[in-house]
Specification:
alpha/beta; Rossmann fold; four-stranded parallel sheet
């Protein structure tokens, strides 16, 4: 690991925006909030993957992965981050290094790749991502990017976050550091207003930003930059002229908010777009901060009027669903911020959360879960597929909300499942998103297919000896007394 990367990781671990960080000793603080990866355990995401996730939703730049083609193949389009314009971010660029590059170095190949991208696509900027292999052979992407920027007259941004540096959460922060070091503050916006805000940590999954933006437009609040969902390079570069920052219910890019407060005196708050009450709280906080920064105090009255209308409309639309969903139990197998931000919305829908996973959650996430669910919060550190299966078959949960990798456990148990992770095709943010989420849960729970698949086959009904054994029962019987 290079000295510059070590220094950057140490700086990230000293993050002042972390509430828990300040209570730690210097030795404990440098360990960070997440466990380091062990060999072979990177399926949940490495640092490179985290940086790519954080920055790829900037839609008009070229994202070039410097490494073997498999790194780009595994990270390309792994989230449904939608764009309202350019689709360049959906083109996969990689240097595709080979064995000779590993022996002799691949810096020349990287420089030629940057030139080819600029000649063919003419993007406003090129982001270059370091990977494990090129990091280990010593390719200096920062020097190559600097030379390419001088040669071609375009910003070429090095993102030094090889996978071996740590887990996905660290990669998010290293991607944010690249923006702080090379992008934010390098351009000026055409105009500014007292109602300009930045939204940080929102990736516009399935268009979630577009469910929130009309609410802000109705209040006259302008999103100067979204970092990074549906983002544009020029908007991110001029983000330092906003009056306030909102951190979207996650500390994955908290370093952007704290550094912007230090450098440009821009205050920030942490809010959530999930659930009716959390959405209303977020709108109130935006109004409060903007008024403190010079906006017309009348903004507060307009905000309360909008909240009254939207809340009444949302509660009315989910009223019938709440009656059907009352008492239904949910098993939430996800990671990070969704382990608590979605819980509040589920409770508002009348559902009971019987367990939420915390394997990829930080200490702050765990504290939020306890705050929402009480001291008896059912936090699951690491649930095996067999345990998930047994929990569903024993009817301890009526539906499982998780990512795509866990769906087959629920399907094998013949229980409803719904995608809550980044691969989903439905947007759940804002008041409209709350209605959408409740409707999708209702569809999954009451789909008639579950009754059909649980009915024994004709030959099983005729002869019980022909019924397939229950894997959960076999597992229980195999346990020592």
């Amino acid at each position: 690991m290079s000295a510059s990367l070590k220094a950057k990781i140490a700086e990230v671990f000293e993050e002042p925006g972390c509430d828990k960080n300040q209570a730690k000793s210097e030795k404990e603080r440098k360990k960070g909030c997440t466990k380091q990866l062990t060999p072979g355990a990177a399926a949940g995401g490495c640092a490179f993957d985290g940086a790519k996730i954080a920055l790829q939703p900037i839609v008009d730049v070229a994202h070039l992965v410097h490494g073997p083609i498999a790194c780009e193949g595994n990270s390309w389009d792994n989230r449904h981050s939608a764009s309202s314009g350019s689709t360049l971010y959906r083109t996969g660029f990689t240097t595709d290094i080979n064995e000779l590059d590993v022996i002799y170095g691949a810096e020349k190949r990287l420089f030629k790749s940057i030139r080819e991208i600029i000649d063919k696509y003419d993007p406003p900027a090129v982001f270059v991502y370091q990977t494990c292999v090129t990091g280990l052979i010593g390719d200096d992407i920062e020097a190559v990017c600097k030379r390419a920027a001088e040669k071609f007259g375009k910003p070429v941004i090095p993102v030094n976050s090889p996978g071996f540096a740590g887990p996905k959460n660290l990669g998010n922060k290293l991607g944010a550091e690249a923006l702080l070091d090379h992008v934010i503050g390098t351009m000026e916006p055409a105009t500014t207003t007292p109602y300009d805000i930045n939204i940080i940590g929102e990736y516009n999954l399935s268009g979630e930003l577009w469910q929130v933006k009309p609410l802000l437009d109705a209040l006259g609040v302008r999103v100067l930059s979204c970092i990074s969902g549906d983002g544009r390079y020029a908007e991110v570069a001029s983000a330092h002229r906003a009056r306030a920052n909102m951190m979207v219910c996650s500390k994955s890019m908290i370093n952007i908010a704290t550094r912007m407060r230090q450098r440009w005196d821009i205050p920030y708050f942490e809010g959530s777009f999930y659930g009716i009450s959390d959405m209303s709280t977020t709108l109130r906080e935006i109004a409060r901060l903007l008024i403190e920064r010079g906006a017309d105090p009348e903004l507060r009255q307009r905000t309360e009027a909008l909240i009254r209308v939207e809340e009444a409309r949302a509660w009315e639309r989910i009223r019938a669903y709440r009656q059907r969903l009352a008492g239904k139990k949910v098993l939430l197998i996800t990671g990070g911020v969704k382990s608590w931000s979605v819980v509040s919305a589920l409770q508002e829908a009348g559902l009971e959360v019987v367990g939420t996973s915390i394997k990829k959650s930080t200490k702050e996430d765990k504290e939020k879960i306890k705050e929402i669910m009480g001291d008896d919060a059912h936090m699951i550190d690491d649930m095996t597929p067999r345990q998930m299966y047994a929990m569903l078959r024993d009817a301890k949960a009526d539906i499982m909300l998780s990512g795509g990798r866990s769906q087959f456990v629920a399907l094998k148990a013949r229980m409803p499942w719904m995608d809550i992770n980044q691969e989903r095709h439905h947007a759940f943010a804002g008041y409209e998103g709350m209605v959408e989420m409740v409707a999708e849960i209702d569809k999954a729970l009451f789909n008639p297919v579950w009754q059909q698949v649980r009915t024994p086959a004709p030959w099983e009904a005729a002869d019980p000896l022909l019924r397939a054994p229950d894997p959960a029962q076999l597992a229980r019987e195999a346990q020592p007394a």
